[in-house]
User: Fold this.
Amino acid sequence: MKASLLKLAFVCTMVFMCTASKAQKATKDSSNTVYAEVETLPLFLGGIPAFSDYISKNLRYPKEAFDKKIEGRVNVTFVIEKDGSITGVKPVGKYDSVLSQEAVRVVAASPRWRPGVQNNKYVRVQFTVPIVFNLKK
Assistant:
């Protein structure tokens, strides 16, 4: 499938939304605590533009979705660990299963990030990013 036939859109507005739905707002520092809010957010090397570029270059429109002209948005949640690795990648909300598999794949394969910081310590932080699949009109 040629890239010129596809338009993969990655929503950069509000790209790094910390989600409080499953994360804890901790007062004590516990090694397994997942924070929703931190003093210093995790950062993809190069910032939001670099993460957007990474998604654009690595996301592939699934053939089944392309053939059936399926478009949509997949919200992907994940945890940036203390070492900058990504764990717990999964789709949330309403989503197409074919599109969600690709969105999860590309986020899970992301290079390490600079970890989040709370009270001068690296901590685990949960993020949710929207990934939009659009066919070129």
